[in-house]
Amino acid sequence: MSKKQLIITAIIILTLIGGGVFWYLKQEKQSVNPLVTENEQKKNEPEQTSDLNPQTNDNQKYQGETVKEADGWKKYTNKYFGIEFRFRDEGDEVGIFSGRDRLVLGSKKDIQGNPRIYLFFSELTEQYPNPDSKLLDYLKVGWNGYQEQAQLIAITHHTNQQDTNYYSVSAKVNGGMQSPGITYTDTKYYFEYPKNSQQKDKHINYIQISGGDDDLTKSVISSFKFLPN
User: Fold this and answer.
1) What are the residues facing 68 on neighbouring strands?
2) Which of 75-84, 166-175, 190-199 has the lowest mean pLDDT?
3) Which residues make Cβ contacts (< 8 Å) with residue 113, sequence separation at least 6?
4) Would you list the DSSP string of 77-97?
5) Pick from 227, 219, 188, 229: which is nearest to 81 by CA?
6) Which end of the chain has less Cβ packing within 10 Å, N or C?
7) Phi and psi (nearest 5°) for 142?
8) 217-222: which pairs have CB atoms within 8 A and are 24 or more residues apart?
9) Rounded to 5°, angle at Cα 97 from 94 and 102
10) What torsion do the CA atoms of 77, 79, 80, 82 make, to the nearest 10 degrees?
């Protein structure tokens, strides 16, 4: 075989080898690219969040609405708990946190660290069969929710400006280890749900309100009412 023929043969062989390599790489690219594209799409897609998150929905359903009225006062309405009250907040400083069994009013800047009013939603037991005096019967034996020693002063019936009936329970409380030898007078307020109330949770029978002797507490107590069905 002449030198020229050897060169031509070598060129043909190299051409065939190059074509084979090119075909192989092309096939590999076609098989890999779809996976890469799919992964890239998943990577670039925003993370999906479930609308059925129970914690989010639970927190949302307990929330009420606060509306500023023409006289400078604010009206708070909570349809889940079926309640409404008003309070003065000209400086827009009062925030309201709502959860499954309570509302907390306090400073917007630190409502958890500096609460001013608690509203606890509770259930009465079935050991008080008289529906007309159920809450009063309960308070006579279950008024003492203090961790320290306490002495009952009075249980008094009231009717506020909204014609809502409630009881105030005043007690003399021992300061305990934090304030040994010191006693103080504390008052809690109890509102019993009427039969035609709007609340969603029918297990709730009454509300206990704890606050201080200040205008915010007084305004909530005096304007408190239940939303009718």
Assistant:
1) 74
2) 190-199
3) none
4) EETTTTEEEEEE-TTS-EEEE
5) 227
6) N
7) -115, 20
8) 217/116, 217/117, 219/73, 219/85, 219/86, 219/87, 219/88, 220/85, 220/86, 220/87, 220/105, 220/117, 221/160, 221/166, 221/189, 222/160, 222/161, 222/162
9) 125
10) 80
**Which residue has tokens 């400086």?**
91
Q: What residue type is assigned to position 205 of the chain?
A: N
Tokens linked to 134:
């159920």
Lowest mean pLDDT among 56-60, 120-124, 153-157: 56-60
Overall pTM > 0.90: no
Q: Quote the tokens at residue 120.
A: 């606890």
Identify whether the C-beta of residue 136 lies closer than 8 Å to the C-beta of residue 122. Answer: no
Span 75-104, pLDDT tens digits: 999 999 999 999 999 888 999 998 889 999
Q: Which amino acid is at 107?
A: S
Fold of 54-226: Protein Transport Mog1p; Chain A (3.40.1000)
